[in-house]
């Protein structure tokens, strides 16, 4: 197997992250790449969600993944083994990524021809939401076992989420998780959030999510699908 | 129901948190209170774990809870409704608590006669591990649905954990979670970690955890149980 490329991210020296993020967003749009910032708590199934998209994106789009982690390289290994261009970004101990760190990752990923790049952010519902990464959209995964009250407890994360993916719906019978409640709470934070229900494990609902993401990537980059 | 006391924590002005934490630890020992810093990712079941301890602690120990959260007060409400002295600590947007913030919480809790206080830290596997709160021990909850690889991905949290509580073991049949693997990974980070398996929901394993915590509180405060 191909070796995992590991990038030790340098702390940003730029003072205005919002401006830097806006610049990065414009650059990516100009080169025709849609960047999605994927956020979640630990163990929500971010990587498994990306894996579940593979068959739906095949022959339709060129895409790659930046896996951010404190220290390990398991996620980039997993994506590479599945045939998806990936790099592992190490933050050292840092709890989030900013636009400059995202830019370092995109440079390491290399391929200018990618239509869509996912940044799998640090598994953390607090800090990543505070920093604009330069992504076109923010997508948050919430898994059923975590509970339907998370938008109440992590307000900023859910304010910043354009897309909310409720994962592990195959376990709905095992947990006390109310769809009406989670939707109410999520829309309190962002009335315009798009909500998808999936089981990345058994594939339920993934086709709808994939179709939406393909359409979104097309509209961001101006390429029709 | 009693109103929830909500404390908006002030950011610490002290520069040496380690020294402040050591001082707080000594003060608590002197007054005969064992402080446990309870950490976990979002939705692991920290509050439910505390609720599950109630029948086991009844008439054996005087205890209270500080519930830290970005913004909400649902956890302190839950504990108060169950008859346990509780305060809600709000960090604003901050992703962790330090010793000075913990001290503000203990002051708000008020009762000097408590044998045991739990600090339910922010649901976050990154930042809380970086700050000594002054607790006698760190206890981390990992729930089965999050996966057995979390000690690989969040090294510092598991280095700092004296007690690891694996929660939601009633869902083991539904998830690919290997007990040998999680124990191997956790001991890589801290060879001396004490590991307990519980279902806070159905009570399985909670008696053993409660007995250990009672003994621990006794040994920290010098009071025999």
Characterization of this structure:
The structure is a homodimer of 225-residue chains. Chain A has eight helices and eight strands. The first copy, chain A, has 225 residues and is of the alpha/beta class. Chain A has a single domain (6-218), classed as P-loop containing nucleotide triphosphate hydrolases (Rossmann fold). An eight-stranded parallel beta sheet of chain A has the order 1-4-3-5-2-6-7-8, sandwiched between helices. In chain A, helix 2 (46-57) packs across helix 8 (206-221). In chain A, 53% of the residues are buried. The interface between A and B is medium-sized, with 32 and 32 residues.
Kindly summarize this structure in a few lines:
The structure is a homodimer of 225-residue chains. The first copy, chain A, is an alpha/beta fold and 225 residues long. Helix content of chain A is 36%, strand content 19%.
Strand order of the largest sheet of chain A: 1-4-3-5-2-6-7-8
Task: Outline the low-pLDDT stretches of chain A.
Answer: none
Which CATH-level-2 architecture of chain A?
3-Layer(aba) Sandwich
**How many individual β-strands of chain A?**
8
Give a quick account of the main beta sheet of chain A: strands, pairing sense, barrel closure. Answer: 8 strands, parallel
The CATH superfamily title of chain A: P-loop containing nucleotide triphosphate hydrolases
Count of the separate structural domains of chain A: 1
The CA-CA distance between the termini of chain A, in Å, is 32 Å
**Helix content range of chain A:** 25-40%
Q: Topology as H/E string of chain A?
A: EHEHEHEHEEHHEHEH
Count interface residues per chain for the largest interface.
Answer: A-B, 32 and 32 residues
Could you state the oligomeric state of the chains shown?
homodimer
Strand content of chain A: 15-25%
Principal-axes geometry of chain A comes out as globular
| CATH class category name of chain A | Alpha Beta
Number of helices of chain A: 8
- Determine Rg of chain A (CA atoms, Å): 16 Å
Structural class of chain A: alpha/beta
**Which whole number gives the mean pLDDT of chain A?**
94
CATH topology description of chain A: Rossmann fold
